[in-house]
Amino acid sequence: MRGPVRRAVARVHFVLACVVGALSFVAVSLGGLLYALLRPRGSAAVHLSRIFHRVMTTILGWRVTVEDSAHVADSAPAVLMAVHKSNLDIVVYGGLYPRRAVVIGKKEIAKIPVFGWFFRATGNILLDRRDLQSAIASITAAAARVREEKISVWVFPEGHRNSSPTLLPFKKGAFHLAIAAQVPIVPIVCTPLGGLLDGHRLLVFPGRIRLRVLPAIPTEGLVEADLDTLVARVRERMQEAQDRLAAEPA
Predict the structure, then answer these.
(1) Backbone φ, ψ for residue 214 (5° rounding)
(2) Sign of the CA dihedral 107, 110, 116, 118?
(3) In degrees rounded to 5, what are phi and psi of residue 37?
(4) Tell me: the pLDDT tens digits for 173-193?
(5) Cα(11)–Cα(45) distance, rounded to whole angstroms?
(6) How far apart are CA 241 and CA 212, in angstroms?
(7) What is the rounded CA–CA span in Å between residue 195 and residue 215?
(8) I need a labelling partner for 2 at 20 to 30 A (CA). Which of 22, 108, 117, 170 fits?
(9) pLDDT value at position 78?
């Protein structure tokens, strides 16, 4: 299919995926919330992310492949840092989300009906970026949890969605956390989504997405004075890896 016909099919595909995705997201979030309330020590977050990942990749026609996924388990507990591509990151990364992990998110997430309740009930970390003292206290508490409970933390260090090939400046909260907990940072990069998703024109196309998990970057022995160097090192490594992945044949 070419031209107008292909765009028309892609737009219908987009609309159907939005409708089914929204209904599935609410259903899975509600199921996850009930699961979390009945089994507080269970793996509700893992089940939600993987179920929604399978449902949506099937609907969208996306095939997600992960390279070097063993780095996630081998480095645990760790701070897992992924590039923030779109609103569908939960679809893209959902199959990789590990057991015994939590997510760092904005406190506004807790206000989302059903999903926000689920997010809070499963022990994820909510930060108020406008309140520095509150954010510092949350990071300190999170570092203690990482050490005591041996959990990993998933974060998008850019802080905002970014479809550009150039990474945004990284927020420093997760780096403070990694240094405080003395756990490694595991970077995760992704191929561009531009050929598969155009949210502005309401188009979605089937295709392949590749994720690459990079070797862990240690923080053992680092102190706060090393923070800026660590941020620059991680961002540089992720930018180089993302550029290489984008340049490789599909």
Answers:
(1) -90, 160
(2) positive
(3) -70, -35
(4) 899 999 999 999 999 999 999
(5) 31
(6) 8
(7) 28
(8) 22
(9) 96
φ, ψ of residue 152 to 5 degrees: the values are -95, 160
Residue 23 CA to residue 227 CA, distance in Å, equals 42
Contact 187, 212 (CB under 8 A): no
d(CA 145, CA 156): 19
Q: 137 falls in which pLDDT band (50, 70, 90)?
A: confident
> Which amino acid, 32?
G
**Rounded-to-integer distance, Cα 112 and Cα 218, Å:** 35
Q: What is the pTM of this model?
A: 0.91
Q: Tally the residues of the chain.
A: 250
The three-state DSSP-derived secondary structure of the chain is CCHHHHHHHHHHHHHHHHHHHHHHHHHHHHHHHHHHHHCCCCCHHHHHHHHHHHHHHHHHCEEEEEECCHHHHHHCCCEEEECCCCCCHHHHHCCCCCCCEEEEEEHHHHHCCCHHHHHHHCCCEEECCCCHHHHHHHHHHHHHHHHHHCCEEEECCCCCCCCCCCCCCCCCHHHHHHHHHCCCEEEEEECCCCCCEECCCCEECCEEEEEEECCCECCCCCCHHHHHHHHHHHHHHHHHHHHHHHHCCC
